[in-house]
Each structure stands twice: as structure tokens, then as C-alpha cells.
User: Fold this.
Amino acid sequence: MAQPLLQVRDLKVHFPVRTGGVVFGDYTALKAVDGISFDLKAGETLGVVGESGCGKSTLGRAVLQLVPATAGAVSWLGRDLTSQDKLEIKKCRQELQIVFQDPLASLDPRMTAGDIIAEPLRNFFPAMSGSERTAKVQDIMAKVGLLPQMINRYPHEFSGGQCQRIGIARAMILNPKLVVCDEPVSALDVSIRAQVINLLMELQRTFNLSLIFISHDLAVVRHISHRVMVLYLGKVMELAERESLYRAPRHPYTQALMAAVPIPDPDKERAKPRVILAGDPPSPLSPPSGCVFRTRCPKATDKCARDVPVLEVSSPSHEVACHHWRI
Amino acid sequence: MSILDIRNLNVRFATQDGEVSAVNDVSLSLTKGECLGIVGESGSGKSQTFMAAMGLLAANGRPTGEILFDGKNMIGADEDTLNSVRGDRMSMIFQDPMTSLTPHMKIGRQLGEVLIRHRNVSADEARAQSLAMLKRVQIPEAERRLDMYPHELSGGLRQRVMIAMALMCSPELIIADEPTTALDVTVQAQILDILRDVKDRLNTAVILITHDLGVIAGLADRVAVMYAGRIVEVGDVRSIFADPRHPYTRGLLACTPRLDAAGDGLMTTISGQPPNLQKLPTGCSFHPRCSYVVERCKAERPALESIAAGRAKACFVDVRAT
Assistant:
């Protein structure tokens, strides 16, 4: 098998949070990402799901070195990015891009669509002529479904879906190998969401692009991903091929998440068993001992409070971190 | 007997770029204990219809038509009349519980205020009833929460406080405007369960405004689909999902990703974008995005017409025949 594009090993991102003390302060580590490992191949989509505060966005940013890793390795084509200096990382950024959640807020309101999309070209190819740049911008605009004659308009003149297309065009103009999509469709209307997902899938096919697709929406993730990672309080609960995960989720958290997603069919939705998780996720500043999910888990035992479960292979290409996945 | 009866409601907003019609000729009614789901995308007028019912339109908004709550017209009613109904017999739950709770007021006082205002009870009595209501919406450690500020609670707990506040005076109608959109899916399931319980046990009528068809499927008895300020289809929830007759309803259902179906290949989409309310297309507002469009749709606007008992649609085409 070819070497994966991206290898993440035991990645940790801890943020110091002030928890008391007047003069010198006491700091506690907020473990946003706590020991995550995965591989990503060319042309593959890894879906990352979890609730607010599970560390999914931080994971995406740490892969791109937009937040510094506390520990662990992020190897891009065999080179560990966490040990490179800023200049080296900047060179890699040509191949590593990101699309953000809020389509309007992630675009500079005082720049035209053309300038926004062309900015990466200016950064990486300052010698490129203006006419060549414009040609490239118009070419990518057409590819993401924007009319090239809209090149001189400002972000506020576009709808939410179109703004997200501008964000995608900006990410795609350097022909990246990996794009991290951080909730790219959450702010969009239902009818527009499907259009943007199709666009991402088409771009992936055309350019053999790898995607890390971060979302809280399990139905959208099912559609776009090849493999799916379920996070809870900075840790991987389950990591599996899409069909394996959705047909037979093994982790109690994944099962609860899936049971909570409403199905747009009145008969199915009303007939399905109600597995309601009590309470909210605990504060990441003081996560529970042992398994972080045990405080809300219907299967929790004393062992869960004592021992941290490690990811174990439950079937080929399906890993789960639970002491009780067999029952 | 209907508790809310909206007849030919129009809502216009005066803006610098001219008048915007947010709601056009909307008629709806709701009986006691019924849950009516309102589906639509941003700008469809789904929120503004009911902001008008609550007398909460922005200052530049002007409603015309009739909104009869228990027979009394809410349009043109003075503040005193509105205030005697709002929070007492009709209350509202908003999308974002952080911005709809008063940040500098303790939870107990915010809840109690409703009773003191409408029921003229003592402060002690208000506190006791507030506590009971927090327990009813399953807030853990309810006693302690009474003395907390909104920012000390999680999003899910805040939304429960909002629901508790809406329920304080046992209203006959609750308008829930995207009540779970800002919440995580496991918390959404908890909140929907509470709303279901309220509807079943207290016989409260609920208007559930949302863009999420899954939420509608679980809770609503009837559904109205809105597009560009108009109702395009209305019917009971099972018929709407099993046999949608308007091309927009069909499109919405087809392009909703489903957890229970393996998605392979590209998703079904509705082409184009929701219309600009200031530059609405001629004829049927949906015609530029519609795959069933015929010449007539471009010139003439279809009226909302009955197609079966309790069902109506605004479309010239029989989508089943094509």
C-alpha cells in the first residue's frame, strides 16, 4: 500500500487555562485534543464528528499547524510538521488548505471575490503576472460554480452558499492535496447544503483531493466520508469505515449519537427506541477519570472509572475505545 | 375551536432599498393541543409570520390581515392587550437561549417575574413555582440553579430554562422558533422530548418553526411548507412526508441527507438559490428552481388550493403525473 499522505500520531493539543491565583495564577491544561492518531490516504475523506467542545476543530487546526501541538507528530508526506520551522511549514501550506464554517465571516469584506481567491497566488507566486492570475481565478470560479464575471463583487453581494464557494475556490486555487473542511455546510440552508457537498465530492474526484470533513451532522458525514472518527472530550471513541460504523456502531457514545439524530420520516422517527443521553458533556477542564464518556454511559462499570480504554480493533478497519463494546 | 387563526396575513418591511414583502397572504389555523410544524429556508417568512402574531415585529415592519388568538385580533392591539396575552396564554421559545435570557438577572427572578406579572403572586410563591417548573423540565440540582445567572448554565440547560419560562403560566399556545438549532444532537433529543411531553400532557398547542425535517417528523401533527413568504403546501405530517405534492417540498425531502439511508454518489439538489425578496421572480416564486416548471408558472402565481381533506398546495403541476 502506498504511504499515506498524512500520518497523525498521538497528537495532543493542551491549552493552559487560568483557574485561580491572583498574582502568579494557577493554570490547568484544557486537553482539547488528547492523543489522537490516524492516517489519511490520497483521495480519501475522513469525517470527524462529535459535539461542541469535543476537539474536532482543534484537531483540524493542529493538523494544519494553525495551533501548535503540545505533543505528538503530524507527518505530511513523511515529514513531521511539528518539528519544522515556520518557513518550512509555510511552504507546505500550498498543499494544505482549510475551508471555514461561517462563509461570510471568513471573507474580508473589503476585498473583492477575485482578490480573495487570488490572495494565495500572490503569497506563493508573487512573480505571476496579473493577467495570468485573473485567468486562474476565473478558471477556479467556474469550477466551483461561480460566474467568472462576478470577480469584482464584494462578499456582501453574494448569498451564503456563494460565499462558501468563494471560500472553497480560495482553498482550491493552489491545487492543494489536503483540505480541512471545518463545518463547511452548517451555516447553509438545506437546499444549498446539498449543492456544496456535491461540489466538494466533485472536486475530490477531479483532483484526487484528501478531505478532513469536520461536522456535528452525522447524516452529512455519512454521505461524504470514506472513514469516520467519533470524538468525545478530545479522545477518539470510534474510528471505522463508513458503512461499518453506520451499520453497526460499537461504542455506546456513537450509538447514542445516532439514536439522537431525527429521521425525516414520521413513522420511523416515532417508532424508534428513545435512547436519551442524560446531561451535558462534562467540562474538558476536569474530565472524568478512566473513560471520559463514563458519566453519561449506560454501560459504565467500576472498571470504566479506573482504566482508560484504548482503541482496539473490533473488526477489520473498525476500532473502538470501550471496555464493553462486545456486550 | 381554533386557538390561533391567521387570515390573509401580510408583513412588509420598509427599508432604504424599498419595501420588502416578508410574508404574503398567509392563512393558517391551529386547534388546542395540536402541533403545527412550519418548514422553510432563511427568508421564507416562517419566523416573521409568528413574530407578527406575538406583536414582536421590528419597528419598520407592518402587518396587515388578521391574527385571531382565541377570537381576538392581535394586529393593531395595544401594548396592554398584547402584554396581558404574551407570556400568559401565548409564549415563545427562541433559537438562541443566551441572547433571549436577561444576562444580569438570576434564573429564579426571571422565571418568577412571569408569575408576579401575570398572576400577582408573592415572591415566595413565585420562587416555589419556579422551582417546580425547573424540575418539570428535568433540570438537575434545580434549587441551586435558581440562584445562578444564565452564563453559568450550558446551552441545553439555558434552553430548558427558556421552556420553563414559557410554561410558567400554562399557556394555551407555545411558539418555538428553531428551539434546538443551536444545540448538540444529544441535547436536542432531550429538548424535543420535553416539548413532546408538554404537548401530550398539558394539551398545549405548539407551533414548531424549523428547517430540520427530522425534527418536524418527530413532533408535528400538521406541516406547512413556506417559500419566499408564502405557504406552498400544507397537510398532515404523514401525507407530507409520504406523498409531497409541491415540487419544493419534494426537493427539500430529497436533498435532506438521511442517517438511515446509505448515501452513495452525489446528493439530490435543488438548483439555484433562495430568491431575493426584493426581486421576486414573476409568477410562482419557485419557478426558476423548479424541475417541473411549465410556461404558465412564469406568468401566473398559483393559489393555495385544496387537493384533499386537510391538504392544499400552490402549484399548477401534478407532480405525481410527471
